[in-house]
Every structure is written in structure tokens, then in C-alpha cells.
Amino acid sequence: MDVSIAIDCMGGDHGPSVTVPAACAFLSRDPVAHVTLVGDPAAIEPLIERVAPAVRERMRVQPATQVVGMDEPPANALRGKKDSSMRVAINLVKSGEAQAAVSAGNTGALMAISRFVLKTLPGIDRPAIATVLPSLRGHSYVLDLGANVDCSAEHLLQFGIMGAMLVSAVEHKDRPSVGLLNIGEEEIKGNDVVKQAAELLRGSGLNFYGNVEGDDIYKGTTDVVVCDGFVGNVALKTSEGLAQMLATFLREEFKRNFMTKLMALVAMPALAHFKRRVDHRQYNGAVLLGLRGVVVKSHGSADAFAFEQAIARTAEAAGNRLIERIGERMAVREEVA
């Protein structure tokens, strides 16, 4: 895909040792994409010295002298680090030198800097964080995952529009289904904000399914699941904790005695296939929706494979006019209103 992506090479738990090899792997599988590696040249250039010429000619290094710490307050990063690798990468999106940016750095700082530099699209009050989760039918997109703890019904409607446009762009679906996360499917259930949001979504022209419950996320009932950031973050962390617990229990049971170890050997092919299906690394890359540019947040502890998936997700969103789709949809809504 012919896109240009700015990569914050210094962000995340591992920095250039992960981000640069991931960028090289991405360019190897995408023969027309370009990347700008943002960060300390002394740390980046040794890692690309032996890269194949066909890949090397589609990357350049953009120096940045500062790094935003993973636990640094967003206000400090915003005001005090104007030459950080994160800030420079986002500046490249604003100037048009890159179509999108991706970072594994501090989430709060990335959201604050992106919102300050790029601003929100017309009609969008607040950006939201959207990610993809595995389901029985493939995967579902969920937003918001923590950017907005308190939301109004109007905010949830905007999340629904942005989520639908995201799925249209990256999954190529004309009318993706949208569900509203609630404590029951019935229209009478939920608090006032959720009930009001359901009414707005029904009249929005989106393919609104109605209320969905927590287990519908993993059933794949709808393409998009909308909720406020408080609920979304709790649901995500609960899911991660449950998955870790089940994996630990499984390992303990297979190691219990000689017979269980033998059974583990027999079951190894099925276990390996199961592991690939639920491998969270292939879903890495949460999109910051609602901004005047594509920005993707990778998990901070991502390895090279996971960060490569985040870069690919960034390219998919930028190459399929995500920002324009959201802007056009919001413009139509403004005209109707």
C-alpha cells in the first residue's frame, strides 16, 4: 500500500531494538510503503546498515533529541518535550510529510500530544481509543478503551460513527453493524445515558443492532461495540486477566504428573493452533479516532512481530481514507441536523 508512516522508534519498553526490525519486516512485505524512523540516529542507523537496498531506499531517519518516559505525566511531555520522538512523529503527520504515525510510547502523552497538534475533526468532541478483539466470528472492534471516563449520549453516538467508519476502512464493509454495550439487550435496561445513546444511534442511519452484553464482544455479535472509556477499559483488563489465569491453570494441569505431561505432548498440535488463534500480538494497534490524522498506539511491551502488526494496521487505516470517511459522515450528520 503506497503510504508513508512516521514511526516513533524510541517509544515502548524496548525502543529501537523492537521498532526498527518491525519497520524493516513491514517494508519487506509491503513493497511500496515508506517509513520515517523518528528518534536518535545513533540508536537507529546501526540497525538498518545491513537492510536490503530495496527496503533501505524506502526509509529515512528523522532525528529527535528527546524521549517521553512511559510513566511521565502527559502535561510534562506536552509542554517540556517538543523535540521528543513522539512529538516529531506527530508533527510529520500534521505537515503532510507522513500520512500516519504509530507509537508504543506513553498512552496519555500520545493522546495529549496528538490532540494538541492535530486537533479533532469537525463535529467530534473527544477522540476515542479503538482496538480489535478476537471473537467466534473473527474479531470485533471496541471503543472507547479508556480515553474518556465520563461520556454523554452524544459522545457515544460519535464513537459509533467513528467505529463504523474504521471498520468500513480496514475491513471493507459498507454497513458494519454497531452494538451498544449494556447490562441487557432490552431497551428498558441501562442508565439514562445509555438509553439516550441508543435512541440517537437508532436515528443515526448507522446499521445499529441494539444493545449488546459483555459476552457479545467475544461472540462477534456486531462488528463494532460502543461503550464509555471506563467500562471499556475494565472489560479489556478483565479479559486480559481471565486469559492469563486460564493459561496458567492449563500449564499447571499439564505439568501435574507423568500422565498429564504425556497428554500435553499428544495435545501439542491442537494447543499450538489454539495459541495462534488467540495470540494477542496479531491484534496489536489501537487507533486514536476523531483526530485530523491517523495515529495508532501499540502496546508498550510489544515485540517486533506485534509492533509490525501495529504498523500494518496504521497503513491500512491511512491507505483507506479513514479520516476522510469520518469527516464525510460527520458532515452529512451536520447537514441533517
TrEMBL record:
Q: Which compartment or compartments is the protein found in?
A: Cytoplasm
**Assigned GO CC terms:** cytoplasm
Q: Tell me what reaction this enzyme catalyses.
A: a fatty acyl-[ACP] + phosphate = an acyl phosphate + holo-[ACP]
The highest taxon in the source lineage is Bacteria
Swiss-Prot/TrEMBL keywords: Acyltransferase, Cytoplasm, Lipid biosynthesis, Lipid metabolism, Phospholipid biosynthesis, Phospholipid metabolism, Transferase
Q: In which pathway does it act?
A: Lipid metabolism; phospholipid metabolism
EC numbers, comma separated: 2.3.1.274
Return any one Pfam family short name.
FA_synthesis
GO molecular function per UniProt = phosphate:acyl-[acyl carrier protein] acyltransferase activity
Please give the family membership noted in the entry.
Belongs to the PlsX family.
Q: How does it assemble?
A: Homodimer. Probably interacts with PlsY.
HAMAP family per UniProt: PlsX
Protein name, UniProt field: Phosphate acyltransferase
From the UniProt record, report the name of the gene that encodes this protein: plsX
